[in-house]
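Subject: complex prediction, re-run

Hi both,

The earlier run crashed halfway through, so I resubmitted it with identical inputs.
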Amino acid sequence: MFAHPSTESFVGALRDVVAEELRLGGHEMRHRDLYEEEFSPVFTAYERLNHVGDLGMKLAHLPELRSHVDDLRWCDTLVLVYPTWWSAQPAILKGWIDRVFMNQVAWVLPDGAARISPLLTNVRTLVVVTTHGSSKLVNAVQGESGKRIAFRSIRVMFHPRVRTRWIAVYGLDASTDVERASSLSSVRKRLRRVFA
Amino acid sequence: MRALVVHSHPVGASYSSALRDAAVRGLRAAGHHVDVIDLAARGFDPVMTKQEWQSYVSMSGTVPHELADDAALVRDAGVIVFVYPTWWSAAPAQLKGWVERVFRPGVAFVLDGNNKVTPILENLRRIVTVTTFGSPRAYTMAMNDNGSRMLRRSLRLVAVRRIRTTRLALFRMDRTTDRSRQRFLDRVEKATARL
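This time it finished cleanly. Structure:
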């Protein structure tokens, strides 16, 4: 899942590295560029009012979400590639979570149960590749909301023993071209181990 | 003081809109001038465009036309109250994107020569989040309240003054009763009237 307004950005370069390393590891890849497909991240009144409605009926109303649901159910590894803005995922990616991780896709609440059951148990590896304009310290002060959303909130919908990898570049605002190139190659090395 | 209430909920007549109205009543009772931004009613597009991103990177202080009114309200506000449901432990995308697009260079901060963020919101003194959760309190504590965390901790960094923040939360929405919902409305009105 790629969520950045420009493929020519540093985050775009990270996305290319992810794709190359997946290919190198012999994996099959489906790729979504939320900006390119002009994904609407706004959870609508229909979705709120039919929050736990029949899935088939919902997807008939929301055809733009159908292929996202298929892709999410298809993968065993989910890779999120995005810039961290205000300590979390950009709106377009947060909205993808708000809308696609719906009832009967990501979770169900069985009759009489106190807590929800996860449905995306096909996902056994969750990788986040992200950039931060500010330093690691500033992000620690801000509380790394994006990391918590990925590794706590949505992780619970995946396989109970899902493997998680946080691959983050910090201090991008103040970095030089040389430093960026070196960050890119260290991200590549880490991805190679994950996708081996 | 000028108070800005930012509301994000997809359904026009919802409990969330009642919370918004309670906050507005409280703030007015405290003698503040209140402005309301209702993101869903306005059909606000939360996606930062490529042009905006490019002008963000070049730290252009020029505010895109469609964001100018909101930017002026943010600059003038002494209090900002966010009213929203918490989804996936965080703010709805529509609210997150509003922050991304409006709190931009020249409005909320500038970068100095050493690429250090300098806050420029001179009037802001209080940030309040009013939110509802589907989950019980204990689950929310384990997952973290990332919506309020983002709004209170990150936005604090672009205020010139020291900011006080308040979080008002109603847990386990599905199990609430008319009485407990009314109690929370009263709590929101009282808390905002004290600001």
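Chain A has a mean pLDDT of 95.

- K.
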